[in-house]
Amino acid sequence: MEWQKLAAELFPEGHDIVERDFFLRGNATISGRVATVIGTTGHTPIGVEIALAQAHAILETMREFPGRPLIILVDTQGQRLRHRDEMLGINRYMAHLGKCIDRARRNGHPVIGLVYDQALSGGFITSGLMADACYALPEAEIRVMGLPAMARITKVPEEKLRELAKSNPVFAPGAENYLNMGGVEAIWHDDLAACLSRALQQTDASDRRSERGLERGGRKMARPVIQGVLASHNVLPS
Question: Domain of life, per the record (predicted)?
Answer without folding.
Answer: Bacteria
